[in-house]
Amino acid sequence: MSLTVVGSMAFDALETPFGKTDKIVGGAATYISLSASYFVKPVNVVSVVGGDFDQDHIKLMHERNISTEGVQVKENEKSFFWSGRYFNDMNSRETLVTELNVLGDFDPIIPASYQGCEFLMLGNLAPQVQKTVIERLTRRPKLVVMDTMNFWMDIALEELKETMKLVDVLSINDEEARQLSGEYSLVKAAKKIMAMGPKFLIIKKGEHGALLFNEDKIFFAPALPLEEVFDPTGAGDTFAGGFIGYIASTGDISFENMKRAVIHGSALASFCVEKFGTERLKNLSQEEIDARVQQFVNLVAVDTVVQ
Amino acid sequence: MSLTVVGSMAFDALETPFGKTDKIVGGAATYISLSASYFVKPVNVVSVVGGDFDQDHIKLMHERNISTEGVQVKENEKSFFWSGRYFNDMNSRETLVTELNVLGDFDPIIPASYQGCEFLMLGNLAPQVQKTVIERLTRRPKLVVMDTMNFWMDIALEELKETMKLVDVLSINDEEARQLSGEYSLVKAAKKIMAMGPKFLIIKKGEHGALLFNEDKIFFAPALPLEEVFDPTGAGDTFAGGFIGYIASTGDISFENMKRAVIHGSALASFCVEKFGTERLKNLSQEEIDARVQQFVNLVAVDTVVQ
Questions:
Q1: What CATH number is given to the structural domain containing A229?
Q2: Which residues 228-267 of B have a C-beta within 8 angstroms of A?
Q3: Reduced to 3 states, what is the DSSP secondary structure of residue B269?
Q4: Whole domain around residue B37: which residue ranges?
Q5: pLDDT digits (tens, 9 = 90+) for A200-227
Q6: What residue stretches are annotated with the Carbohydrate kinase PfkB domain (chains A, B) (predicted)?
Q7: Nearest-angstrom CA–CA distance, B34 and B288
Q8: Domain tally for chain A?
Q9: Cβ–Cβ of B293/A303 closer than 8 Å?
Q10: What's the ipTM?
């Protein structure tokens, strides 16, 4: 089942209470495609990088059956760069530098070989660019998942709402759900947001887990309580990659299967935060993933409680 | 299986975004005993009130098989009074008034009929008073559960640590776990706190659920996503009452059964927040409770995910 992923491929420079990095590879499409690659082959990436991008990372992507045919390389320009610092609680951060560079006028190109893909993951990007990708696919995918963030709610709300009408699943965090809906209660927020277009809504709550909504149904997936969160960068994208990757591998877009997909996304995200950047996502084994998924299942497992 | 509950019986005056109350009945022992009364009979309360306390509430307690033989009445004094205001997010509040009154020199008396109780719930009180109750029981209960709060960590940390050594289960919220342990990670915090005495630790995370720790085992119970949280007052005590009430009704203090108890405590707490004060806890039906518990089970239910 083919999966196309759209999003940034970038350099990040990170500071956490545990240390700091020079420029390391980051970006939504990077995390999503690596995470999805543990479930489905190929993963087709649409993105744009500068001549400065890390060729070893491109090689790693190819080794993991991630196609970069749709990754434009602008030799004389620089890749998107983001620098941020996390505070002690690891739940809040400040942006130190944002250099759009090649992302500033990103015009996504869909290679012919990507056409006909069954699953589309729109990583965080300008909503107009996300919409363009949907429009440039000659056949509508079986499932379109969109991730976005408060930044676009602040500066491009109308475009965001237009794009939301075209997708099946929206993935945002709890604060973004509140901002987008104007409702504090996440149950009320979810109803309002689903009325804007997406039939399914995922609300990510970081260390507090994730909620999946569809009609009147709610599923809750916990986050795994961890001894150390080393670097939260990319956790949301890694979640999205595991989610869509699992769905693409099964071809099943039922609510029941999406529940399993949320668990798999959560499991992959729990690996992501254990090391800086993409480090932990480069060579996971199937055994590690299965064991981690089982930990999530066990965490909430309880024998029948109603007598 | 007999249960003894120690804690305040008080008047609260509450302001929430949905309205405000005059003085209504509150206090840890009030919520704990009402909640536990849905599972076990009798519930024996040790507390102290002034001559101003609400006699209708005492009658309600008796109707629910809650014994007030251990509730001292100081006719010429006033009951403990607390007044607080919740902010819009309902997760934070400010204290407007605290009048200790009869609670200032509370010297708990254990009636002979309470002696030999198998389960003891120490609601939030000065740790020295909690310790006195344990010492005045002629036989150590099968399980002692202690609830406390940051206030005592600020002003009576050594007494708190002494009392903690004598209990089996400690129940605190996430911020209190961090304060008590000096660790941000709740997994690390739990290890440190269990090394201080309690074999089991419950960390309450409010709208984000609750964690139960024992040795290397972790169980997570979600909170039910609610459309409305009307008044969070007493939710933690109601949780504790459902937890210990369920355990007392089954007589089973295994980790597996404590998991079920956490779900029952969470279910009772989810009723509590639906109305002001104790209103919603006065006449729940078994069908309502069973259905709510089932909602908690369904919320995280997922078919086997590891293939």
A1: 3.40.1190.20
A2: 228-229, 256, 259-260, 263-264
A3: helix
A4: 3-299
A5: 999 999 989 999 999 999 999 999 998 8
A6: 19-279
A7: 15
A8: 1
A9: no
A10: 0.90
